[in-house]
Amino acid sequence: MNKPMLYAFAAIAMWASVATLSALTHSLPPFFVAGVGLILGSLLTVRRVKEWKVPPKNFANGVYGIFGFYFFLFNAYRLAPVMEATVLSYVWPLLMVLLSPLLLPGTRLGANHILGSLIGFVGAALIVTGGKLSLSVDALPGYLMALGAAVVWATYSLFTRRLPASSDNAVGGYCFASGLLALGLHFATEPAAHPSAMQWKIIAVLGLLPMGAAFLCWNRAMQLGDPRQTGALGNATPLLSTLMLVASGQAALNGSAAIAIAMIVGGAALGTLPAERLLPGWLRA
């Protein structure tokens, strides 16, 4: 495994813990958790604060991706069952593959990408519906929030590749600005937070790992590696995340969830591998 893939795997391993940890702060206002966590994450690069200065487009993309992702994700966990919200939010690797030809010059959208995206979205629909034809109206806002998180992260990642390269330490500035925005919304729209001692510890872990170090690793992976390969590796995230939820007793892995996860992972794999290895000649782009 090359260095960019190692950086991506490190980020993915940390992000896999988000659903489990976030469930333990479920009683706290989500903007409070996101704000404190992101500011803690920014401290990892505070010694290189001069490198936080980047072109406006880079800064805007960073805040869009980090603040936007957690805005949708934390609200998804509050409005929908954790299992379904987790799997839907991790459609982002599939979206990275599908959107790469549209956002990154020099790439093409082949038939295998289209088929892979269809398989993946059928899997996403299966986890939302539980194998039934009707959606849960009560959880629909949470489902949409989770899908919003996936769209934001996929587009942020691809724009990171497209924009001029900047120091990885600039991610600390993105985290700090995103944290301030989240805390501003907390004070403006949410009740006061009163975390327990255990919840403070969980927020600290969230901040330093999935909200801090993981972003640094991901930025390096996106700037140095192949976005399609990185996206393909990202498909390990929903499985790892789900296994953590099951191990912590917060979810049960039933047959429907297992099939849906397999379809999402398989669909993204189909979309990233060369068409000539998977499809007959008449289907190749």
UniProtKB/TrEMBL annotation:
Entry keywords, A to Z: Membrane, Transmembrane, Transmembrane helix
Pfam families for the chain: EamA
Name of the protein this chain belongs to: EamA family transporter
Ranges where the EamA domain occurs: 4-129, 141-270
Membrane-spanning parts: 31-49, 61-80, 86-104, 111-128, 140-159, 171-188, 200-218, 230-251, 257-275
GO cellular component: membrane
UniProt keyword annotation of Membrane present: yes
Organism, as annotated: Chromobacterium amazonense
PANTHER family named among the record's database cross-references: ACYL-MALONYL CONDENSING ENZYME-RELATED, EAMA DOMAIN-CONTAINING PROTEIN
